[in-house]
Amino acid sequence: MHKEKLLMTPGPTMLPPEVLEVMRRQIIHHRTADFEKIWDEMHENLKYIFQTKQRVMTLVSSGTGAMEAAVCNLFSRGDKVLVISIGAFGDRFAQIAEAYGLDVVKLAVEWGKAVDVKDVKEILSEDINRKIKGVFITHNETSTGVTNDICEVSRLTRETERLLIVDAISSLGGLELRMDDWGLDCVVAGSQKALMAPPGLGFIALSEKAWKACEQSDLPKFYWDLKKYKKGLEKLSENPPYTPAITTVMAQAAALRIMIEEGLENIYAKHEKCAHAVQQGMLALGLTLLPDIKDSSYIITAVKAPENIDIGKVIKTLNNKYDIMVVGGQKHLKGKILRFGHCGYFDKFDIIKAFTALEQALLEEGFYFEPGAGVNAVMKELF
C-alpha cells in the first residue's frame, strides 16, 4: 500500500494542502495584472516575515543563490570579511566569498557548538584599522542542529560601518528573527524550509546601510544584480527583471497567507515546543544530543549515533519501511549523527508518528530501551 512519505527533514519540508492546490493550476503570464497582484502580496507578506520595512527581493534560485547575491552585491575586490562558521553552511559562505576574491578571515567553531560572541568581539576589536567590512553568520546551522544568537552578534555591528549578513535560510519563519529591530544589514532565506513552499526561490533583504554598500560594489554580477530587482519592485514592466518561477511564486504566496493567519509568535512557539519534545524524547531513549541543549535548534535536532549501531541503517529503515524521512550527517559527521527535522508544515501528531517509527527502527537495529520511553517523553512535552 502506497503511503505519503512524511518528511521530517531540514528541507524541503511538507507542503500545506492550500499550497499543493495552487501548484496544480494552469500557469499564468508574469506580465499581467493577475500576477502583479500575487507578486505584490507575496512581497508585502515577506516584509512581515523578515520583520522589516525594507524591500524583500525574490530570486529564482536556491538559498545558495541568495547567499551569492549577498557577497557580490555588497563588497568590492579585496575587501576583508569575517565569516563565522559553525558547520557546512557557514563553510559555504566562506567558499562563496573566496570565489569572488574577498579576503576571508574565518572563525571556525567546532561542529556542534554555537559561536561564542566574545570570540567575535575579540576579532573585531583587534581590527583597529576597520579593514573588516562585513561579518557573515548562519542563524540556524542545519548540518549540526545548532542556533547562533544573532541578536547578540548584531550588537557588535549595528552602530558601526560593518555589515552583518545573516543566512536565515532554514530559520526564517520558524525562529525569532527581527531584521530591523536587531539591526541586521542583509538577511537571506529560501522557500523550502519554514516558509512551507517548494524549493526554487531565494529571498534577500538589505538595510539602508547595505544599499549604500551595494552602490559602491565593483564585483561582477548580472543575474544577481540586486539594483535591477529593486527597480523591478517599483515598476510592473520590469517586475521582476527576469522570468520568475511563476507557479512557485503562487505557491509561496499561498503559504505566506497561512503564516500570516497563524501569526509569527504562534509559529515560533510551535517550533520551540515541538523541538523541546523531540529533544526530551531523544534523551529518554538514552541518545545524546550533538550540541548542548541550550544551543539546540528549534528547526532540527541532531543526535549522536549510539555505539555499535549503524545509524545509516536506522535512517534507511525509517525511509523505506515506515515512510518517514530523516537525514544523517554531512561531511565528517556522515554516519555519526541522525538529524530529525521539525520545521514548517507539521504538527504534534507528525512528531509522535515519526518518533514511534524511530523507536521501532532503533529496536530493529539492536539499540535497546523501554519501548515507548521516547514517545511518552514526547507526549509529556506536547500535551
List keywords for this structure.
7-stranded mixed sheet, Aspartate Aminotransferase, domain 2, 2 domains, 3-stranded antiparallel sheet, single chain, 14 strands, globular, alpha/beta, Aspartate Aminotransferase, domain 1, 383 residues
Describe what is shown at a glance.
With 383 residues, this protein is of the alpha/beta class. Helix content is 42%, strand content 16%. The protein has helices at residues 17-23, 33-50, 63-74, 88-99, 117-126, 150-154, 179-182, 208-216, 226-232, 246-262, 264-284, 311-320, 348-364, 373-382, and strands at 6-7, 56-60, 80-85, 103-108, 132-138, 140-141, 146-147, 163-167, 186-190, 201-206, 300-304, 324-325, 327-328, 337-341.
Descriptive report:
With 383 residues, this protein is of the alpha/beta class. It folds into two domains: 6-12 and 264-382, Aspartate Aminotransferase, domain 1 (Alpha-Beta Complex), CATH 3.90.1150.10; 17-261, Aspartate Aminotransferase, domain 2 (3-Layer(aba) Sandwich). Helices cover 42% and strands 16% of the residues. The chain has 14 helices and 14 strands. It has helices at 17-23, 33-50, 63-74, 88-99, 117-126, 150-154, 179-182, 208-216, 226-232, 246-262, 264-284, 311-320, 348-364, 373-382, and strands spanning 6-7, 56-60, 80-85, 103-108, 132-138, 140-141, 146-147, 163-167, 186-190, 201-206, 300-304, 324-325, 327-328, 337-341. It has a seven-stranded mixed sheet, sandwiched between helices. The chain has a three-stranded antiparallel sheet with strand order 11-14-13, with helices on one face. A two-stranded parallel sheet has the order 1-12. The protein starts with 5 loop residues before the first strand and ends with a helix. The model has no long low-confidence stretch (mean pLDDT 96).
